[in-house]
């Protein structure tokens, strides 16, 4: 007869939704994946989760660290999901050149107002940060069997994104490149002579600085050699010569540094004068407006095709991927998308993208290319399950599910605390949330169907407007 094992998981507590969902994730994965225990049971006792299983703890640990197959949790309908990049792949040489004189015009009052209005638009802010995720590409080509489902899901999602969205994305990238090029050319053309003089003088200064450092190292080596020589040995002529060369190099370096500083100030003044030129300002502003319009068009295009994209993904993805889609959102009979409160607008908490963070934490726990466990994966798993003290937390946001780890003012021993999360807590949190499938429900026969899911309630109006005496 198989023994029954009771595992007290004191790190999984119901007080925070993150650890509550982690407990559900442990249960779901052990009961459904190969190498687990289909007969597993669990319950809450003394403010922590208790697992009843036919497999020993060392087998459970081996299952998660070595065999666990991540659920493909992706959100290609979100701008910041890593599937889109609205910025050029390479920064302009103008932006990275010395000195640090950025080729951007100063804000006029009109520009400041437009930027403030854009800041009020969360979608506009998301597009400012939308860049492709290199980890997504690695998941798409991973050869390990542990990520076979993930690899297939990424490739299906890439192919499902409509061409019209990719065309809009490319237009944004080209507009951004044109904006940077325009700003750089306008400012460089007017400051070519000053920039050339500064760059030549600065290169000479750096060469003299390197030469002086070389002489200084030679002096140090010679002095060290003389210490081991017999007492009374006169200072060698070689040391005197090197010291003279060092002093001369330092003097030349000082003169070159002062000249480079003067030329840098002159260049900055020229660039400042050019930025104030109305003609240049108008050309740069026109390029900025073109980029802003392209981003707006991209956002509208993605929003328009979102229901079609989600329906296509539900039809083409494997059952494991559809579980996540059904937990994050729902489609009504008219094809409109409804989102649950757990995952914001389909996989995000404000600006934090759950799916992108999941890939980061999976990469922390396993080698994406081989599937092998990372060095600290087992220690992190034990710390998450048993609530053990650990210094293996990642300084990454965890969102609304774990407010105690969010960081910020008065969130640590000092005045300010950084966010911190155990990668296993984040991964298992999302794996548990997949079990909370969303759906459409209605109250009564005539009320319109709305999305409903666990941990989500809506306020109901009570009383009447005339109750106030004021």
Describe this structure in words.
Among the domains are: 63 residues; 244 residues, no CATH class. The protein starts with a strand and ends in an 18-residue tail after the last strand. The strands form five sheets. A three-stranded antiparallel beta sheet has the order 1-3-2, with helices on one face. Strands 4-5 form a two-stranded antiparallel ribbon. The protein has 15 helices and eleven strands. 32% of the residues are buried. With 470 residues, it is mainly α. About 7% of the residues have low confidence.
Mean pLDDT: 80
Portion of residues in beta strands equals 5-15%
User: What structural class do you assign from the helix and strand content?
Assistant: mainly alpha
Tally the helices: 15
Strand order of the largest sheet: 1-3-2
Question: Major sheet: size, sense and barrel closure?
Answer: 3 strands, antiparallel
Helix content: 40-55%
In a nutshell, what does this entry contain?
The chain is mainly α and 470 residues long.
List the SSEs and their pairings.
Blueprint: E1 5-9, H1 17-32, E2 41-45, E3 48-53, H2 57-67, H3 93-96, H4 109-119, H5 122-129, H6 134-141, H7 148-160, H8 163-190, H9 192-227, H10 237-275, H11 278-316, H12 319-328, E4 329-331, E5 337-339, E6 348-349, E7 352-353, H13 354-365, H14 377-386, E8 408-409, E9 416-417, H15 423-433, E10 439-441, E11 450-452
Antiparallel strand pairs: 1-3, 2-3, 4-5, 6-7, 8-9, 10-11
Helix pairs in contact: 1-15, 2-14, 6-7, 8-10, 8-11, 9-10, 11-12, 13-15
